[in-house]
Amino acid sequence: MKIAVLGSGESGVGAALLAKAKGYDVFVSDMGPIKPEYRVQLKQAGISFEEGMHTESLILDATEIVKSPGIPEKAPLIKKAYEKQIPVLSEIEFAARYSKAKFVCITGTNGKTTTTLLTYHLLKSAGLNVGLAGNIGTSLAKQVIEDAFDYYVLELSSFQLDNMYRFRAHIAVLLNITPDHLDRYEYKMESYAASKLRITQNQLEGDYFIYNQEDPLIFQFFKPAVFAGQTIPFSLEKNAHSKAWFEGKNIVLGFAAQSPTVSTENSPLIGKHNQYNSLAAISVAKLLGISVNQIETALATFKNAEHRLQKIGEKNGVLWINDSKATNVEAVWFALEGMKQPIVWIAGGVDKGNDYETLKPFAQEKIKALICLGKENEKLKTSFGGIVPEIKETQSVEEAVEMAQNLAQTGDVVLLSPACASFDLFNNYEHRGHRFMEAVREIALKN
């Protein structure tokens, strides 16, 4: 058996190491450079690899191909593999063959990282033997070499799901479906939705699908009548079909015996989108037997990933928040919706065809100033001119923080929530978020 691995990132190298451990003849190929730490891992394992090229004769000689999620299905090499009837798998599909654990799988256009981290935190805090993998942390394949966990919580993108066929989630979670990455799906919303709903494939009677009942595209494309597992639809308010919902700051778990309530009073998460995320994560925890007291205790100690409505600090009554991960309008909508204070909003970057119409009611109601941080700001200025009282622009994150400091008053929040990609001024959204936090600490929060 020969395995060709396309891509030498965390998932690719993990798949290669697992394949080697299971006795396969393994070859890793990457069109780009291989990071030094991964090159060392491959050499130590005695795995053949190439970088800066794809040698088709070696790749198309494989029994199976494990490909990076970043490589599209329409790539010429992938098309040739299909023509030769060589199976093309994701790392998750390959790794799951060698695990006896149960999988909790989380997807959605927005919120999946927060929900994955919160779910993992709730399970681990309660003493479950649980691993974290997928789009986050150490690759599943690398962890499966030892397969020491009873459960894995996996964050899954649509790109990963596209090359998963026999994989079965014990608990699947779908948070939302909004337009994103449509270039990979021939600009067809139904194709993107079908990709997300692959998370439910192969589920059986003893498995669960937790989903956002209030999401219109999930409602449109998911067909409960033909689903083999058990459904747990959640919503912010109780309705005829919801099995988990909010009452004030309490979550009611209507699917559990005696419909227990879980207080979210001490949760650090803010905004409506995080209410949905909390509904999903807490439902998973309850399904796996975790008590209300354990859930409430763990909620209070949760720390979210950076750049997701991350509180940096407060000075002179002004709260500073880093939401650099908000690279689309939908994510910004949730951020603005969650704020109760007047907002000095920092936005901008590489526009992805944004339509800002849904943000305009928030602009009229809450946004006192807009600071455009990007090389091309005309669309933002045109969209919010005449609505937001003051609009400024800059290409310097330090100057943006100085401007915000001068504009903000006691009781205000300064929110970096860009709605755009970061590649005009920064390497990625993490780089943008770190630079913003550094500037806030050096300029705004310094004594």
UniProtKB/TrEMBL annotation:
It is found in: Cytoplasm. Keywords: ATP-binding, Cell cycle, Cell division, Cell shape, Cell wall biogenesis/degradation, Cytoplasm, Ligase, Nucleotide-binding, Peptidoglycan synthesis. Its main location: cytoplasm. SUPFAM superfamilies: MurCD N-terminal domain (SSF51984), MurD-like peptide ligases, catalytic domain (SSF53623), MurD-like peptide ligases, peptide-binding domain (SSF53244). InterPro entries: Folylpolyglutamate_synth_CS, Mur-like_cat_sf, Mur_ligase_C, Mur_ligase_C_dom_sf, Mur_ligase_cen, MurD. One of its GO terms (molecular function) is UDP-N-acetylmuramoylalanine-D-glutamate ligase activity. It holds the Pfam family MurD-like_N. Pathway: Cell wall biogenesis; peptidoglycan biosynthesis. The keyword Cell division applies. Residues 106-285 form the Mur ligase central domain. Residues 307-420 form the Mur ligase C-terminal domain. Belongs to the MurCDEF family. NCBIfam families: murD. Cell wall formation. Catalyzes the addition of glutamate to the nucleotide precursor UDP-N-acetylmuramoyl-L-alanine (UMA). This is UDP-N-acetylmuramoylalanine--D-glutamate ligase.
